[in-house]
Amino acid sequence: MSLVIPEDDNRLRHVCADCGTVHYQNPKLVIGTIPWWQADQQVLLCKRAIEPRRGYWTLPAGFMENNETTEEAAQRETTEEAGARVELLGLFALLNVPHVHQVHLFYRARLLDLDFAAGTESLECRLFRESEIPWQDLAFPTVSHTLQRFFADLGALTEGQAVPLYTLDIRKRLQV
Amino acid sequence: MSLVIPEDDNRLRHVCADCGTVHYQNPKLVIGTIPWWQADQQVLLCKRAIEPRRGYWTLPAGFMENNETTEEAAQRETTEEAGARVELLGLFALLNVPHVHQVHLFYRARLLDLDFAAGTESLECRLFRESEIPWQDLAFPTVSHTLQRFFADLGALTEGQAVPLYTLDIRKRLQV
Lengths: 176, 176
Description:
- 2 copies of one chain form a homodimer.
- Chain A has 2 helices and 11 strands, in the order βββββββαβββαβ.
- Chain A is α+β, with helices and mostly antiparallel strands.
- The longest helix of chain A has 18 residues, at 141-158.
- Chain A is elongated.
């Protein structure tokens, strides 16, 4: 594999020296949910069992896979990481993290029951009221920003008002 | 390169037989704009100079690259394909095309001037009123659906009303 600019291109690409196949590398989508239990005003978070940020809390989310839609990815990750069933309520946030080549999408979601359970990538899953959120122990800036905006918008959302898509570019590296 | 399920995974991945590196393949983002010239109620389209769908009309759009944000990708593609300068006005559409492993995003955009010019991937770029759109000669279903919804929402948008993000899953293969 060598790094060259293909003839009809203007960027360095990984090209197979044997067969000439260009292996494009493009940003990946990380997709998750904000699972909300309206009766007790609680959000479901997962404590990560894997690196990076093992032991820190996150919203259920992960890399979108081929052959699925963004909504299917959101549902799948919520089931895989938190064993939870949710009804999706629309896209809430789009966050760019260009230095790690990622775009994060978070959907609002209604928890359908409380029979959740930590999946293999989670040490623990539990419900948090806004006052209980472990802000200092959240895994990623995208999760902190999304939760902050979610609680700021909660009054409007509870009244059934539409809120604009939350968009943010995060350019700073995570301090670990 | 061989197709195996890595130890901590549940899907087939391309793994280098020599070094064990897992080459993940995930959906790609295709990002573009709806460049609008308000004075004459016209949208800017490009006739494709490359396959697939050479000779058909499209909104300026292309694959998001590493190290950029979704908005930067939208601006870059609009400049590369149509030589046009735009001000972005917010995300308008998110369309899933799971059978080709793509997610398409289109931003509303205000054309800043009429000094546009076809880029190397376009045969021609020109402005169209709604009644002039070549609906039978559009390159992709994502472009047709986005333009249809854009014109349906145009009244509300012109009055400054917020419209919900247009989302659609396109599961049928393109008939060519």
